[in-house]
Amino acid sequence: MKSLIKNILIVLVFAGMIGCELEPIDENRLDLDDVSTFPERAEGILLNGYTGLVNQYSFSEAATDDAVNNILTNNYKRIALGELNAQFNPASRWGNYEQVFWVNKFLKIIEAGKTQWSRDTLTNTMFEMRMKGEALALRGLHHFYVLQAHAGIGQSGQLLGIPYFTEFIESNGNFNVPRLTFENSVKAILADFDAALNLLPTDYGLSAGNVDPWYSNLDNFDYDKYGIVNDNFFELRISGRIVKALKARLALFAASPSFLDNQSYYQMAATNASEILNTIGGVAGLDANGIEFYASDVNIQSRESLWRGSIGGNSATFERRMFPPSVNGNGEINPTQNFVDAFPMLDGTPISGSNLYDPQNPYANRDPRLEKYVVFNGAEFGGGIINTGVGGGNDRLDSIPGQSTTTGYYLKKLLQPEVRINNDGTAQGKRHANVYFRYTELFLILAEAANEIDGPDHQVNGISARDIIAAIRNRAGITQPDNYLASITTKQDMRELIRNERRIELSFEGHRFWDLRRWGVDLNEPARGLFFNGTNYQELPSVEIRNYQSFATYMPIPNSEILKFSELEQNNGW
């Protein structure tokens, strides 16, 4: 961790040099105090907190029962096959402490009061409020990332969280601090989130009548000056709305069976989620196009994205990796039969309980989301028909090692279907956006929490789990009336349905790797496939055998940190 601080100091010095004239030699030796006196440089320190945000493109599903990566050296494949340990953990997020120290440095600058954002006192105060709020929220978020990846039962048998850093520590300072208990770690993150909520605007670009009271009640408040600070120009930055959503995510994580299994945290998750969702009309606000939020420029900018990054230029990076070989892709991520089986029939009934399901015509009359998310045998894609069975050429199962599917399926979700990759390697790309939080995730947080509080029909601020699942399945195209949903009456049955809907709706966005762990369910379900032999479909029961240790519900602290810091306690088993 000391090396992170040294790197921060070096970058700060060079940040001060950029744009400076080189005449006096002292100008090239700017220290941290010098950086803090220039608002654009100070803000640059804060903006480092926006690096390392987790988006939907991790493809960690290759280490779950939802997918197989066809590249033998893929890191997630390796941990799924048994290589996960304290020295090798591609899912580690210990590096997010770097962003924590960046924002702590910025908060130190704010507290020093040396940086003048505006000569106008009111405007300067509002700039300080907003950016301090951003820093606190980002500090909480990056600590959450570390907590999600490294909380667990320690060697002492206690449920532990992580070290929580609220100060900038110089490179020669003391980093040898113990982990907090899990609940105290959660409380520390919540404290930062709550402090941020009293400083950030709920949304950027609010009208004069909707300005939050912590701004409108300032002495000599002026809306025009407020607009300079909190205009919708800043809408991609963290806001009060986003922080409330992050609180809901954190509370659901904390409440889960592998951690606190606690009703008060389920209540916190449900309350924060419902308060946000009621501002968009409750279940009526579910975005009709949210299923394919990634599919076009229009949908990228839709109301489905509660928080996203800027929309990048045209690219074909993910499409090159994921498209089937016949359309010049590398077919890297292969959804499993396990995942495909999670999609119900068109009437909403699970395939295991439906008389309509035909194993030899397995994709007929299925949930329409299946066709949107998975390229299966006989599907139209890229201007042709994809054949993963006999006669399928390069698209056939196991035709080309490291390129053709290993399960009988290719990934479709998250990809821009309009991308064209030419035979000469050139491509007509499309724009993509990193999405950090979707409204559908928030709906599912509320559904899970409300059901755990008191079953399918328990309402939190007028919304129940049944209401949400009905809206999501109706949007998906499940035939109405949804008799299967109507048959669900117990908390346990609704729990399984919510988990399945979460599996489908949030698939390939990096959630399932962590969901399986927080739910405490089996990590070693073998990845299955399906092959069309020219006449019949035959199941491939063991495409990839998972090999997680029994204690892999909780991920390890990096061994390098354990060796450096005697106060750090490793999770049990590692």
Structure at a glance:
With 574 residues, the protein is mainly alpha-helical.
SSE blueprint and pairings:
Blueprint: H1 2-17, H2 32-36, H3 39-47, E1 67-69, H4 75-83, H5 97-112, H6 121-150, E2 152-153, E3 159-160, H7 182-197, H8 213-216, H9 223-230, H10 240-255, H11 263-277, H12 297-300, E4 305-311, H13 317-322, E5 333-335, H14 337-341, H15 369-373, E6 374-375, E7 380-381, E8 384-385, E9 410-411, E10 420-421, E11 427-428, E12 433-438, H16 439-454, E13 459-460, E14 463-464, H17 465-476, H18 483-487, H19 491-505, H20 512-519, E15 527-532, E16 537-544, H21 559-564
Antiparallel strand pairs: 1-5, 2-3, 4-12, 6-9, 7-8, 10-11, 13-14, 15-16
Helix pairs in contact: 3-5, 5-6, 6-7, 6-9, 6-10, 7-10, 10-11, 10-16, 11-16, 16-17, 16-19, 17-19
Description:
It is a single chain. This protein is mostly helical. The protein has helices at residues 2-17, 32-36, 39-47, 75-83, 97-112, 121-150, 182-197, 213-216, 223-230, 240-255, 263-277, 297-300, 317-322, 337-341, 369-373, 439-454, 465-476, 483-487, 491-505, 512-519, 559-564, and strands at 67-69, 152-153, 159-160, 305-311, 333-335, 374-375, 380-381, 384-385, 410-411, 420-421, 427-428, 433-438, 459-460, 463-464, 527-532, 537-544. The strands form eight sheets. The protein has a two-stranded antiparallel sheet. Helix 10 packs across helix 16 (439-454) and helix 16 (439-454) packs antiparallel against helix 17. It starts with a helix and ends in a 10-residue tail after the last helix. The model is unreliable at 9-27 (pLDDT under 50).
